[in-house]
Structures
1.
Amino acid sequence: MGHWGRRSLSWLGELAVAVTIVGLVGASSAMAGDPQSTGEGATRQVEGAVLLETEQIEEYDPWEPYNEKIFTFNHKVFDRYVLKPAATAWDYLPDPVQESLGKAFDNIATPRRVVNNLLQAKFKSAGTELARFGINTTVGVVGFFDVAKKMGLEKSDADTGQTLGIWGVGPGPYLILPFLPPLTARDAFGFAADAAMDPLNYLIPFAALAGRGTGDVVNTRSQNLELFESVEESTVDLYSAVRNFYLQGRQRAIAK
């Protein structure tokens, strides 16, 4: 796996449409408190979280019986029989190709980051995102190459659920939906808003958009095959672990 493929992806950073990865992927992504975390350090961070080496947070899960059933479906049916086989086949693509695809998907998500950085009064970060988009879309060939990063312009992730949390909106109940990563009631509204900020929603037919979203998900899953295998093998109560470090990751994202 390439360097990019080993990192723990920031929550919703690459998942801007409603065809997303299962809870394990979303939650492990949330544990990357720093969106720039890469390499072995990020891997150890995720693995440590799965082993419940986490701070104590309030876990409001009144819909747990329902959530557990959907989580089991997502993990034991959708991921095992659909997503993982597709990701395994996708993993035969050379690392540079996977990395470039990931960067292109990330570039498409720029409007969400710009808008939410502005709403969070992070004006410097919003300006950096605009500069990154301009450079990577042109010199970086529509985002396949992260030229802006080489120029010192780092990505600063932000999403609508995070913005609502900063504004004082409580997370509400923990929520698991079919085919989607973990959410809270607040993040579910944020997820819909983020999807509405995906420019491709308004430019291409739904079938093509779903295909792009699915390719994003499979690409992410293929780059983390070994990591997720390790997570599954080292965790006794996967549902509770995912819930804990997803909620912890969201709390950190709002507090930073």
2.
Amino acid sequence: MSDFQGWVATQQHRFEDVLRRLLPQADEVPQRLHAAMRYSVLEGGKRVRPLLAFAAGELVIADIERVDVAAAAVELIHAYSLVHDDMPSMDNDVLRRGKPTCHVEYDEATALLVGDSLQSLAFQLLSGQQLSDDAARQLEMVQLLATAAGSRGMAGGQAIDLASVGKRLSLPELENMHIHKTGALIRAAVLLGAYCGQSLGTAQLEALDHYGKCVGLAFQVVDDVLDSEADTATLGKTAGKDADNDKPTYVTLLGAAAARQMAAGLHDEALAALVPFGEDARRLRELADFIVLRKF
């Protein structure tokens, strides 16, 4: 096992305990809702967004307990989006992270409330604990996540996605959709981790944001390639569903080979953005490699 793989495994295992602690317990009223929240969040996914927050936190020598809370807030927003995206009124999927989706395991009304509750809990965590010595900076963190999650970010990207079914988008239009749908939360994860530690200058924050933008787009491009080539058992979700539903993807627009080339270019651009940070950005570089070069 490489040093990076060991770091990832350690952070993933430790963060699972963080989520177990921060989520309401399943025996707390209302029990069914709290059980469904834990079902939807725990024991699943690679935790890419929290890993990015931890890597950015290491860059600024942040208190790990502060980054834990910021990372949890991002992951709860991500989990809520998956619960809602999988519902019949959206993507109507039955499998997520290798197990039945929330609305299948429970019911649609519970799934709707799970998403609502996870979103509320994310902001309760982000605003309810001291994550920065500067109160104004912590308020900026709350605003950053709210913007990334809302109509100018993730939710807006999903709206564009739903409106694009059966349409052929241009490359700039497809990029715009995914900069919002997938990229906004990934960029927020990087910056929230960075805001938990030593202050960075404007140019440094812009460099980290550009890194997050490139990694976020690359993540989606690679997802589209894997969705077209891997099977359901490997992915842990229904393979080929976007193509089956006539949704535009980087593979349908460019072809698999050109999509891989695009991901490689974004990978290079992300690494270039980290050059000013030197060895301090090691984990962020390794995560860029992991995101672009992953096989599953």
3.
Amino acid sequence: MSPWLRQHRFALLAALSTVRKSPGSFLFNVLVVALALTLPFAGLTLLDNVRPLSEQLSVDPEISLFMRADVSRPDAEALLPQIRQIVAQGKGEVTFVPREEALESLKARSSLGGVLETLGENPLPDSYVMKLGGFASAGAAAQVDAITEDLRALPGVETVQVDSAWVKRLAALLGILRLALLLLAGTLGIVVIAVVFNTIRLQVLTQKEEISVAQLLGATNDFIHRPFFYTGALLGLCAGGVALGVVLLALQPLNGAIAEFARLYGSQFQLMPLGGLEIAGLLAVSAGLGLIGALLSVRRHLARSR
């Protein structure tokens, strides 16, 4: 075994020995850090489940284009090639709806037939209905805006209506949730670092005499500080494991309530735990936060001892 590996093995064993000497204090600190990590871990799990659901939503916006009442039928039909050229970028289908057909459809779908007959003339304009395809996600539906603006610029067009507003609202809501989760994770990450910083500071003060003796015997700063780094990393790692365990246990009752709600909409949606790669990444982040807290605490002690 190389000297470098022996030094790290000794530091790890020293950190484990410190934990065994005061397991109650270590477990208490683990619980405190785990409480801080549970909320962002739960939020990340929720977003991880909602993200593929939002991407799989059927996003096929429909655009309705209404001509002005004074536009003649030949002029309205003459716009068909231009409309098809504009809508081609969205892989859409274009259907011309004469005003007579629109009136008959309105009479058939509503109870306003008698009211419409009393008007004497058809109040509805000629129109086009465009069903756009190729929008596999909420983000891709933003392309509809460009198509809508091009359609509004055509001569004789009175109004252009788009039914994809809900898609944009969903995308905006998910963006807000991601930003809120990022801010929350950053704030609670500072809390984790502060807890580990204070824990290591107390440990350094407790072993102050041992550190002084080691320095007199010629021990380097790296040799003295390395066990504290491992202690901070172990604290963060254990807290991350506890937080993930709490989130996993909370999924069971949540899925029971979600199943009842989803059944009302004919869905079988359930919250799934994070994958192995995501779990490994979160544990690494937890250990890294513990290491940062220990590093800051030990360096502050080193600066004071000089």
